[in-house]
Design goal:
The complex is a heterodimer of chains A (779) and B (503). Chain A is 29% helix and 24% strand. By secondary structure, chain A is α+β, with helices and mostly antiparallel strands. In chain A, the strands form 7 sheets. Chain A has an 8-stranded mixed beta sheet, sandwiched between helices. In chain A, strand 27 (615-628) and strand 28 form a beta hairpin. In chain A, helix 10 packs parallel to helix 11. The longest helix of chain A is centred in the last third of the chain and has 28 residues, at 525-552. Chain A is globular and about 85 Å long. The N and C termini of chain A lie far apart (74 Å). With 503 residues, chain B is α+β, with helices and mostly antiparallel strands. Among the domains of chain B are: 1-194, Beta-grasp domain (Ubiquitin-like (UB roll)), CATH 3.10.20; 377-492, Enolase-like, domain 1, CATH 3.30.390.50. In chain B, 32% of the residues lie in helices and 20% in strands. Chain B has 18 helices and 21 strands. Chain B has helices spanning 26-33, 93-96, 106-113, 123-140, 146-152, 164-172, 184-193, 215-224, 237-242, 278-288, 293-298, 302-307, 310-316, 323-329, 426-432, 439-452, 463-481, 489-492; strands at 2-3, 6-10, 13-17, 52-57, 71-76, 89-91, 199-201, 209-211, 229-231, 251-253, 263-266, 269-273, 333-338, 341-346, 351-353, 356-357, 363-371, 377-383, 394-402, 408-416, 423-424. Classes of the chains: A alpha+beta (779), B alpha+beta (503). Bound molecules: FE2/S2 (inorganic) cluster (2 copies). One FE2/S2 (inorganic) cluster (FES) binds at residues 41-44, 46-51, 76, 78 of chain B.
Chain lengths: 779, 503
């Protein structure tokens, strides 16, 4: 008997790979345009804060090709696209809150003419400037927040700090990060009969787009259909913030009764939408002579931008990840989401988790240097205890026990694989004789909680159709943005029905097929939608088995599905399609819905306690860098990673997620710098100066290290009942490149003989590195 | 002069276009007019590579490698105007392979097998860059190193993969049986389009572009139209229209003049025609001065180096252009032409202020001449946030000649990013000439330097850091060139461990 072919746990190429490489995978802008399509461009606020006195609409309307100019007054329904709190106008009304906020939309015959007309914004938008707050610390000082401060407390941190043998206090900061999805925001709205509207757009959250468009148009949700086949990257940037574009396109389509497309230029994409929150930290820690943290108090201030958007959940996740992989006995964490007159910051892969976790890494790195110990030893000393610990060392500050802590064995393995100790010695020898260049090494761990912190979002639905020729069509609520979700879901369904991968096709996400879906976010895409699709496919399989059992007189449990064939007990084997054909004639329902809700979650927002995560994912990375002490230039020489994907559904896709996140996170911490024009009284104050790839530098091929050894944790498993016991890999690996940042810090430290803690902040640009070098060598 | 439609080779035939504006980009034409949507737009400014296409041309004497009678180079379709394609061939991802009747090309197959695409939006651009690399190497019968592959992809951004699988694909694509482009029909078609006559494109929808074919005709047109905008590689002007939405006057396109593209050594100088691409020019410079290789490979991304010209970079006079500092260190002269009159000017005397120079109305830059016989030690250093495809915060071209007596005989320090123009650090040079090249001299040079420049703070870095870095680069230069125990590049540059080779 031939081996059952595996459908899950194998490295299948991305389901669209053959289309990507031939340019025949259509993205939203590639879809054929209907006759009569009009094009939109946005007129943006020219100031960071001001009272909106009016827009000279007539002047714009008179420009070549312009068909209409839309302002807030043209919105028939709610002028709001805020995902959580309703403080996000689609088009500015009364007040403009940041430089770049959409004030009006131009509808024209061509995209170019629309852009030309919209570019007149500075002349036609009349505003009376108001004082602007451009930095989070200014806003914090002024007590301006988008939501009330949050506090997560366990034990008595103050007392623990005060009685500790040693104390440390300091500040730190990390910058924000632009998602830089290669495909910018786009929405194409087509009016349908009876006040209906079809919106094809690049979004991670079709259901929210549907609801927001319906509110904006003042119609019921059943009149709005939102569809997305694929995105050219999302990374969180298309979770809530695709709404403004979807709404404006729909508004124009409704007003003009013509198909309307809004594809923003890259510069406008930067100016209009928000990104990863930058964070400022102030901390005080008590520790013992070995480097054990006894108590910690941390205040985090994030740049929320002008509205709440997802800043609350981002801060929650940051606070729930300050512990990273470490047991912090007494801890107090305070989170402030500062309201600034800049773009409203939003989701970005990691969703606050990286910002929370890097704070403790900075603290431990400093403690190690103060004690003259290897930072790995201090980190390890502070690891959470084993899962069966009875001393409480396995419980997070928010009260969730850690059931499967593998951080110690995983770290041990990585230490060996990367030859950490030997390289540490080699580097010390190199640094002792190298006058200009210094090398640095660091190993950092990751623990990341999986699930939406908001319990109700942890649900998903799917539809599976089996056609009479045996081919299978799947539809689910998740969206494909490159992460390979559709590939994994197809694998799950193929496995469940025992058919070839090629027999299964996944189609565009469509609010008319699966309703009330959650965003594809928080790394939950495969966990939720894989389970829902499995549920749907399983129901069909059970029906087919029951039908075959009855028809051929065997037990249903003796009907087996594998390799595209069905074995009906000892009676016969037949092709899957054959049984399907017979079942159709026998009037068996060959399609099914499926549903999944993650069990056992709880979260109390007030006390910030509960079980917000279904499970944790783990990983660790080692990085070696070389730093130029004359210029602050640096280079990553080698990176070794071991990451926990549970029982991986698709190792190649998971490795791809890990590597991609590593390089992306490295960019965040090093070359990717956001610069706004400072508050100097000029009209440019608050202008985002890094507004395109010419000025905003994400990593390129030459930043990929010559040694890049990425492995999945060999004993990967999941104690929680996830889809085939896999673990999510979208976000957790974004924390791995902490190792790059701390290797740079180590190299800088070496320049000062490891006597001074380098005051390095992120992003560690060459300038920041040189500044830190100055500090360690001059003192 | 012939008024006629734009003619170029596309999808196996010569197409004619006469109904687009002169500034219509190749990308907009592809996506909006021809509805070929395989080529993507990621930035519309030449910085992401999603729009990468390959342009085929008949050889132009610029020293660039020829594949089956064709020069095949990548370009950013978003910053190439369609009339610039006249007489050339355009290849897009749809030409490479796949689709209904054709198998995937080895490039595409390798990208699939190595998991080189995730979201797939950057992928067509990577496929085109890899395809160009592939064609060159198959013709040469060689494989690129992994480093050369990374350098060949310097103009392509991917936000999803982290690049490792794409580099793997670049290696793996040579494992399959070779699938070289059949250039015969393309060459034949381009031969058929060849003409010595000036091409004039003046569509009914407005605008005018004039493309002379000879140096004489170009000089005459320039004299006759001093207000026309000279257009070379369009890597800067493309942004004026794409981003600033500016209206341009008549365009005088220099890119059809083959004589202007020559790169040749003669009479003791390397003569770089003003129309030679940055890639051709830097390649020739790095062949003579290997220490310039790093700045060459870091100058923009490959497609921009293929389209942009060194003449344009110099004449444009941006304070952050990387050519001028190096050329000043090499003591280059400019050959300027007005009608039939030709004059020479040291590059160091060319700039008069921010984006201002000594060109007279009706005059144009014809060539850059770099003296080849020089005993100077030369280095070029570029400091920017990212290694690839970034604008310099500081760029330094440094040359020093040390006599037998151990004293500095001559020094030329060209600096970019530190003032409104690229300029020589004359006071600093004066502080070292005639003195022994030792640490005391270095210190006085660094001191002199601080008084010579007052840089600005901008997104690329603060004034103080720029000044400090520039002074530290003098130290690096001294460490590398001092007569006493000079350090090797591997001791002073984090990039030295790279093993670059010609991409
Ligand atoms: S679209 Fe980015 S380089 Fe052309
Ligand atoms: S695969 Fe998404 S940007 Fe490269």
């Amino acid at each position: 008997m031939k081996n059952r072919q595996q459908r899950v746990g194998v490295s299948r190429p991305h389901e669209s790979a053959h289309l990507h490489v031939t340019g025949s995978a259509p993205f939203t802008d590639d879809l054929p345009e209907l006759a009569g399509t009009v094009h939109l461009a946005l007129g943006l606020s020219p100031v960071a804060h001001g009272r909106l006195l009016g827009v000279d609409v007539e002047a714009v309307r008179a420009l070549p090709g312009v068909l209409a100019v839309l302002t807030a007054a043209d919105i028939p329904g709610a002028n709001d696209c805020g995902p959580v709190i309703h403080d996000d106008p689609i088009l500015a009304d009364g007040v403009v809150h940041y430089l770049g906020q959409p004030v009006f939309a131009v509808v024209a015959t061509t995209r170019e003419l629309a852009r030309r007309a919209a570019a007149r914004a500075r002349e036609v938008v009349r505003v009376e400037p108001l004082p602007a707050l451009l930095t989070p610390l200014e806003a914090h000082a002024a007590g301006r927040y988008v939501l009330p401060p949050m506090h997560l407390v366990r034990g008595d941190a103050r007392a623990a700090i005060e009685t500790a043998p040693r104390r440390l206090s300091g500040t730190f900061e990390v910058g924000g990060q632009e998602q830089f999805y290669l495909e910018g925001h786009i929405a194409y709205a087509v009016p349908r009969e009876d006040d209906g509207m079809l919106v094809q757009c690049s979004t991670q959250h079709p259901s929210e787009m549907q609801h927001t468009v319906a509110h904006c148009l003042g119609v019921a949700s059943h009149r709005v259909q939102v569809e997305c086949r694929r995105m050219g990257g999302g990374f969180g940037g298309k979770e809530s913030q695709s709404a403004v574009f979807a709404c404006i396109a729909a508004l124009a389509a409704r007003k003009l009764r013509r198909p309307a497309k809004l594809r923003v230029d890259r510069d406008d994409d930067f100016l209009v939408t928000g990104r990863r929150h930058c964070f400022h930290y102030e901390y005080e820690v008590g520790y013992d002579d070995d480097g054990r943290v006894l108590g910690a108090e941390l205040t985090m201030v994030s740049r929320a931008g002008y509205s709440a958007d997802l800043s609350g959940p981002v801060m929650t996740r940051a606070m729930c990840h300050f512990d990273n992989a470490y047991w912090l006995p007494d801890v107090a964490i305070h989170g402030y989401s500062a309201r600034t007159n800049t773009q409203s910051n939003t989701a970005f892969r990691g969703f606050g988790g990286p910002q929370g976790a890097i704070a403790i890494e900075n603290i431990l790195d400093t403690i190690a240097r103060r004690l003259g110990r290897d930072a790995l030893d201090v980190r390890r000393l502070n690891f959470y205890g084993p899962s069966d610990a009875t001393d409480g060392r396995n419980v997070t500050p928010y009260g969730q026990p850690i059931p499967d802590n593998i951080i110690e064995p995983l770290t041990r393995e990585l230490e060996a694989v990367s030859d950490y100790r030997r390289r540490r010695e080699e580097i010390a020898a190199y640094n002792a004789t190298s006058p200009v260049l210094k090398r640095g090494l660091a190993l950092t761990p990751v623990k990341f909680g999986i699930s939406f912190n908001l319990v109700h979002l942890n649900q998903a639905g799917a539809l599976v159709h089996v056609y009479t020729d045996g081919s299978v069509l799947v539809n689910h609520g998740g969206t494909e943005m490159g992460q390979g979700l559709n590939t994994k879901v197809a694998q799950v369904v193929a496995h469940e029905l025992g058919v070839d991968f090629e027999a299964v096709r996944v189609t565009a996400t469509d609010t008319a097929k699966v309703a009330n879906t959650s965003a594809t976010a928080a790394s939950t895409g495969s966990d939720l939608n894989g389970k829902a699709a499995e549920d749907a496919a399983r129901q069909i399989r059970l029906r087919l088995a029951a039908f075959a059992a009855e028809r051929y007189g065997v037990a249903a449990s003796d009907v087996r599905f594998a390799d595209g064939r069905v074995t009906v007990g000892a009676v016969k084997t037949m092709a899957f399609r054959e049984l399907v054909g017979e079942a159709y004639m026998g009037r068996v329902q060959l399609w099914s819905d499926g549903f999944y809700a993650t069990p056992g979650l709880s979260w109390d927002r007030e006390t910030m306690q509960g079980r917000p995560f279904f499970y944790f994912a783990y990983g660790a990375a080692v990085s070696e860098v070389v730093v130029d002490t004359l210029t602050g230039e640096w280079r990553l020489l080698a990176a070794h990673v071991i990451h926990d994907a549970g029982r991986s559904l698709n190792p190649a896709i998971d490795i791809g997620q890990i590597e991609g996140a590593f390089i992306q996170g490295m960019g965040w911490l090093t070359t990717e710098e956001l610069v706004w024009h400072p508050n100097d009284g000029s009209s440019r104050a608050g202008l985002l100066l890094t507004h395109a790839p010419s000025t905003y530098k994400i990593p390129t091929a030459n930043d990929c290290p010559p040694v890049f050894d990425v492995r999945l944790w060999k004993d990967g498993d999941n104690v929680s009942d996830t889809i085939h016991r896999s673990k999510a890999t979208g976000e957790p690996p974004l924390l791995l490149p902490f190792a790059v940042f701390y290797a740079i810090r180590d190299a800088i430290s070496a320049a000062g003989g490891h006597r001074v803690d380098p005051p390095l902040t992120a992003p560690a640009t060459s300038e920041a590195i040189l500044r830190a070098l100055e500090a360690v060598t001059s003192s | 002069m012939s008024n006629r439609p734009i003619r170029f080779y596309f999808r196996g035939a010569v197409v004619e276009v006469d109904d687009v504006a002169t500034t219509r980009t190749v990308l907009d034409w592809l996506r909006e007019d021809a509805r070929c949507t395989g080529t993507k737009e990621g930035c519309n400014e030449g910085d992401c590579g999603a729009c990468t296409v390959v342009v085929g041309e008949l050889p132009a004497g610029d020293g660039r490698e020829v594949v089956g009678g064709l020069k095949l180079t990548t370009a950013n379709a978003c910053i190439q105007y369609l009339p610039m394609l006249d007489g050339k061939a355009l290849f897009t991802v749809e030409d490479v392979g796949g689709g209904v009747e054709r198998p995937l090309h080895p490039v595409q197959r390798a990208m699939v097998d190595c998991h080189g695409s995730q979201c797939g939006f950057c992928t067509p651009g990577f496929v085109m860059s890899l395809w160009a690399t592939y064609q060159h190497h198959v013709a040469r019968g060689a494989r690129p190193s992994r480093q050369a592959l990374a350098d060949a992809l310097s103009g392509n951004l991917c936000r999803c993969t982290g690049y490792r699988p794409i580099l793997d694909a670049g290696e793996r694509m040579f494992d399959a049986p070779a699938a070289a482009l059949d250039t015969g029909p393309v060459v034949a078609a381009l031969e058929g389009l060849r003409s010595e006559e000036t091409f004039r494109y003046a569509p009914a929808c407005g605008g005018e572009l004039v493309a002379p074919r000879t140096l004489e005709a170009l000089a005459a047109e320039r004299l006759a139209r001093p207000d026309a905008r000279l257009l070379a590689g369009c890597t800067d002007i493309g942004l004026w229209t794409n981003k600033q939405l500016r209206d341009l006057p008549a365009l005088l396109y220099v890119g059809a003049v083959d004589a202007l593209k020559r790169v040749e050594a003669r009479d003791g100088v390397l003569s770089i025609g003003a129309g030679a691409s940055l890639e051709a020019a830097w390649r020739a410079l790095a062949a003579r001065w290997p220490a310039l290789t790093e700045v060459w490979l870091r100058f923009a991304g490959v497609p921009v180096r293929n389209a942009g010209t060194m003449g344009g970079n110099v004449a444009n006079g941006s304070p952050i252009g990387d050519s001028a500092p190096v050329l000043m260190a090499l003591d280059a002269d400019l050959v300027l032409r007005r009608g039939d009159r030709v004059r020479r000017l040291p590059l160091a005397d060319f700039y008069t202020g921010y984006m201002q120079n000594r060109l007279e109305p009706g005059e144009l830059l014809q060539a850059i001449e770099v003296p080849l016989e020089s005993a100077a030690q030369v280095r070029a250093y570029k400091i920017s946030k990212r290694f690839d495809c970034d604008i310099s915060a500081v760029c330094a071209g440094l040359a020093i000649e040390i006599g037998d007596d151990g004293r500095v005989r001559a020094a030329r320090f060209g600096l970019g990013g530190l003032a409104a123009v690229v300029k020589r650090a004359y006071a600093t040079e004066a502080a070292v000439v005639g003195r022994p090249w030792d640490e005391a001299t270095l210190l006085s040079a660094q001191q002199a330097f601080a008084g010579e420049f007052a840089p600005l703070t901008d997104v690329r870095g603060s004034a103080a850091w720029r000044l400090q870095v520039a002074r530290n680069l003098l130290r690096r230069f001294w460490l590398e060139t001092r007569p006493d125990a000079p350090l090797g590049a591997a001791d002073v540059s984090v990039w030295a461990a790279r093993e670059p080779e010609a991409p």
